[in-house]
């Protein structure tokens, strides 16, 4: 191996050193415990999936997929998200009796990055999928659980922006006439390029009324008052039905007592093309990207031969840790330093302390070169050295 690559990692891959790992584990455990309290069951899927199934269903751009061939010549991918693999499992094994499912996961996903992007190609998500329930109550539950999970993780300052992809599609196609023209305008929303959006709208051959409707669309952000504004813009019944779903969602989240974390942003769209209805992103102070997102994806399971409603969310642990800042450090471990003749005594003492819930390490004193530097990292040190006696500091 050349020295150039000896300490290098593939583009976008990261090491997780012990302190960061422990911090991440604290957050993961807090969120996971809350998900279990809400009745969600954790599951795992393989890191490798077939390209023809999960790869094409995932809605991640093809150039972002890590692909490889197995020994039979089948194209495989490293899973680029968790929703598509769980949809595969649900459709094939878990939805036999068409009962609502509440599933959860914590796993790494993989998306290839450009060299100049500086973004991770592997990152961990923790999330839930509610499958088999078409009601808006299910959408309200996952948003309430999202709020509760973030609070359990220690995050207080965050906001959830909620939109409806069906409303955007109906409004744009109603005014612009074709799916292609609607998609061209939607692309500015993907990029959050609102200046470009306005310039594009002004260049379109539209009536002054329709042009103004598209410009007023950008104002559909705020509280429950947005419902009436949106109804004034949309004319067809499908678009109005989408707004009524948002109104119902608001009422459900009010009943959960969590509406202060919610705001409408009807300009919200997603690069995940499988979303079909309500969708949302969660933002936190001092983080430039969403720390989580989710929404309804009623058509995804059809790709695996099953028709079923579904909704869910995923949190990115790396961005959540950035939002949390420095967490409270765990209690320092107890260290027992021993000499050879008191080894058995040291092992028994350590066993007793661990049973009592104390994090304890034992260390042969002959393996320590600098006693002061070594013992400085522990909360308490017990010396079992020599033939008798015990000293602590």
Automatic annotation (TrEMBL):
Domain Aminoacyl-transfer RNA synthetases class-II family profile: 12-324
The keyword Glycosyltransferase belongs to this UniProt entry's keyword annotation: yes
Pfam families named in the record: HisZ-like (PF21996), tRNA-synt_His (PF13393)
Self-association state and partner proteins as the record states: Heteromultimer composed of HisG and HisZ subunits.
Location, primary (coarse class): cytoplasm
Alphabetized CDD domains for the sequence: HisRS-like_core
Subcellular location: Cytoplasm
Name of the protein this chain belongs to: ATP phosphoribosyltransferase regulatory subunit
Note: This function is generally fulfilled by the C-terminal part of HisG, which is missing in some bacteria such as this one.
NCBIfam families reported in the protein's UniProt record: hisZ_biosyn_reg (TIGR00443), PRK12292.2-4 (NF008941)
Keywords for the protein's UniProt record, in alphabetical order: Amino-acid biosynthesis, Cytoplasm, Glycosyltransferase, Histidine biosynthesis, Transferase
HAMAP family: HisZ
Alphabetized SUPFAM superfamilies for the sequence: Class II aaRS and biotin synthetases
Family stated for the protein in its record: Belongs to the class-II aminoacyl-tRNA synthetase family. HisZ subfamily.
Nucleotide-binding is among the record's keywords: no
UniProt function note: Required for the first step of histidine biosynthesis. May allow the feedback regulation of ATP phosphoribosyltransferase activity by histidine.
Metabolic or biological pathway: Amino-acid biosynthesis; L-histidine biosynthesis; L-histidine from 5-phospho-alpha-D-ribose 1-diphosphate: step 1/9
Listed GO MF terms: glycosyltransferase activity
Entry superkingdom: Bacteria
């Amino acid at each position: 191996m050349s020295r150039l690559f000896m300490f290098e990692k593939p583009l976008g891959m990261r090491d997780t050193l012990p302190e960061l790992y422990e911090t991440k584990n604290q957050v993961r455990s807090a969120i996971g415990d809350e998900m279990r309290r809400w009745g969600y069951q954790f599951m795992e899927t393989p890191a490798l999936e077939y390209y023809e199934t999960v790869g094409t269903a995932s809605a991640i751009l093809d150039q972002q997929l890590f692909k490889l061939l197995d020994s039979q010549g089948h194209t495989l991918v490293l899973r680029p998200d968790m929703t598509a693999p769980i949809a595969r499992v649900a459709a094939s094994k878990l939805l036999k009796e068409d009962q609502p499912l509440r599933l959860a996961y914590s796993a790494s996903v993989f998306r290839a990055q450009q060299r100049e992007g500086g973004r991770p190609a592997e990152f961990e998500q923790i999330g839930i999928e509610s499958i088999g329930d078409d009601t808006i109550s299910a959408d309200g539950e996952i948003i309430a659980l999202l709020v509760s999970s973030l609070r359990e993780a220690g995050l207080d300052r965050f906001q959830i922006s909620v939109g409806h992809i069906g409303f955007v599609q109906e409004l744009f196609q109603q005014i612009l006439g074709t799916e292609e023209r609607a998609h061209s305008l939607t692309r500015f929303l993907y990029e959050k390029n609102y200046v470009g959006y306005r310039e594009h709208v002004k260049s379109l051959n539209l009536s002054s009324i329709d042009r103004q409707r598209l410009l007023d669309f950008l104002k559909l952000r705020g509280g429950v008052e947005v419902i009436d504004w949106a109804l004034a813009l949309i004319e067809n019944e499908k678009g109005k039905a989408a707004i009524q779903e948002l109104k119902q969602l608001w009422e459900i989240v009010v009943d959960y007592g969590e509406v202060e974390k919610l705001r409408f942003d009807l300009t919200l769209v997603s690069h995940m093309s499988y979303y079909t209805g309500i969708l949302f992103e969660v933002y936190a102070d001092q983080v430039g990207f969403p720390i989580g997102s989710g929404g309804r994806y009623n058509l995804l399971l059809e790709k695996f031969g099953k028709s079923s409603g579904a909704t869910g969310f995923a949190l990115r642990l790396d961005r959540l840790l950035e939002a949390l800042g420095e967490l409270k450090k765990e209690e320092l471990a107890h260290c027992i330093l021993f000499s050879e003749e008191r080894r058995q005594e040291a092992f028994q003492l350590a066993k007793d302390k661990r049973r009592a819930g104390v994090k304890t390490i034992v260390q042969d004193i002959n393996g320590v070169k600098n006693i002061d530097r070594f013992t400085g990292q522990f909360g308490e040190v017990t010396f079992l050295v020599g033939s008798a006696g015990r000293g602590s500091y």
